[in-house]
Amino acid sequence: MSEAGRQKTPLTLELLNALVHYDPYTGHLYRKTKAKKNRGEIGDIMGGSPSQNGYWGVRVGGVRCRAHRIAWALAHQVWPFDHEIDHINGDPSDNRLCNLRAANRSNNASNMRRSKRNKSGYKGVSWHEGAGKWQAHIRANDKNIYLGCFDTPEEAHQAYCDKARETKGEFARFD
User: What is the pTM of this model?
Assistant: First the structure.
């Protein structure tokens, strides 16, 4: 097959609107046309199951995309090329419009949950071996910020929460 024969049609908003219906209340994407090779009927929910990291992927017009980006494009009639889409509640499979917001990479990272490797039980808190105390730290404005040492992990976490509210605003996440 020639190189030209393998090229996919660019996924334009016009094509997207012709092929997909988005329900902003459920977050589901539905087929507007019958899929090729018996892979779906009109009205079927698109996408199989979430990927290992929880995001739904769909194939539209031969192009594989993440469902939340398709949902955003259909709801706002603009592709989110210049920003990321953040899931407010942290659940990447929840594509309801009320759970999606535009974000830059830093905002999106701010909304991440506490790392599974965290041993303190609190986001932004770790044990400082040399001081024998709990230390608080945060990343904001592309800088790591040391917030000090504290007697309890709760005190350190409170320092983290205060700074997160100040620097991250609506994107601050405390768990």
Answer: 0.75
